[in-house]
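[retry 2/3] ATP-binding cassette domain-containing protein: previous attempt timed out, resubmitting with same input.
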Amino acid sequence: MSLLVDIEKKVGSFCLKTKFNTKEQWLGILGASGSGKSMTLKCIAGIETPDKGRIVLNDRILFDSEKGINLPARLRKAGYLFQNYALFPHMTARENILVSVEKGRQKEVLEREAARFQIETLLDQRPAELSGGQQQRVALARIFASEPEVLMLDEPFSALDEYMKEKIFREMMDTLQSFQGEVLMVSHSRNELYEFGEKLLIIQNGLTILEGEKKALFEQPVYVEAAILTGCKNISRIRKVSDCIVEAIDWGITLDVGEHYQENIHTHIGIRAHDIERVITREKNIRNKMSGMVKKIYERPFEIDMLIENGKSEHILWCKVPKGSIKNANLEEDKPITICLPPEKLIYLRER
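[retry 2/3] ATP-binding cassette domain-containing protein: success.
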């Protein structure tokens, strides 16, 4: 099983230029709204036509601009789960599932997919009579009835509240374990995609900026743009002071970076909010210690977010600590605080 995508498509002033290759992997596609994530899926499905490039699924050419090949959507074996599920409102669940199944196979396919998605009791109901989770299962059953070789999920949880999102995500992940083909999921939620699969593709403004194993990309996202999309709020320009020491220009502090910093490559440094540590002892041998002022405190259900300034820069550092931890004891706005930026938690970045 494999999928190769190398395409370009221009829509007005927007230009999509994306390239990736999967082999029996679940691929998450991360990007902001309007970055080209859904357009990429629609090009694979045959809903949109690229201006040039190639799409190859399991050695079958779906699209090749140079060879003049552009298979219609019905022949691509590409299942597409739309954000709103796109069920036909006037049809029952049964009719929706069987909409593209040959008559001679309908009984067999319906029994198989209804059992797979546990919707046997819902078959005579219309979409308006179903919950969001039930609608999603019917939509997935319709896709599986067409026996796709690639399954594409386009923001499948965006319309759900947090409780239902978590519940349906778990149900869908369990169900998809039996699928033998390629699976792609598009989302702007880094948490969903981190749980979804091992491989991640990051798109910005129509361009693929990074592709690789998710853990590696979150630990060292390479580019400033990728760091922002993976949730890093603290990023500063840097300049070398001496061996192993840099100035974080936007934070107004110097940092011990050890041997990780490469002057001819790295232009920025970052640290995730939860990696900043509050110093509550008088120990002197703490690296990258900084004194500052708590500018703002945001209390969350299970954690506390702080905005910290050090008086040397207009930029503010975001810090996140667990609720109930000794490290958030006696926190008050407009009160001094000491923090440290552990060298092993620093992220080394460059601009594209």
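[retry 2/3] ATP-binding cassette domain-containing protein: The chain has two domains: 2-222, 232-349.
[retry 2/3] clearing retry counter.
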